[in-house]
Design brief:
This protein is an alpha/beta fold. Helices cover 32% and strands 12% of the residues. It is built from seven helices and six strands. The chain has a three-stranded parallel beta sheet, with helices on one face. The longest helix is centred in the C-terminal third of the chain and has 13 residues.
Length: 185
Amino acid sequence: MTVGFIGSGRIGSSLALVSVAAGQPVVLSNSRGPQTLAKLADQLGPLATACNYNPLRDGQIAELDNHSVTSSELIQRHLPDAKVVKAFNNIFFRHLLALSRPAGSADRSYLPIAGDDAAAKATVTAYLDTIGFGAVDDGSLAGSWRLEPGMPVYGPPSQYGPLTDDAGIPAGEAQIRAAIAAARR
């Protein structure tokens, strides 16, 4: 399995680091082009390559503004042969690096995921396990708005601790499920 990242800022770079450390090949992308990722790909070694995707190139998108589709559904539409699974958008990059724990650990953190393909979600769940996180399935890409900014499950301070705490605070499965359930549009 190769893990592709749309966005290679702090979260994407941290995910690439933990992925390569777990033996997973990665493909990095951002809106500035693959040449801006060459240094990071070189640092990560032979399991990392750079590519490019720019979701903002089309300007304002009415469907996103009026909430008729989620950003993840739009990405799936642009990448029809891919199996898009939304993950990692709700955790601070430093917490991603600090909260990894083996399966069975009492203080293991869980991350919400959403996608339309059951096999792809199972693959992402297995991938999360290899890098030290559990998964909470939030359903389809249409429902992935519950994982967006402003929702209870989205990032600090509601989950995983404040941005000023590099070590973070583990967020268990029940805590993530409760935050998802509290989401209102």
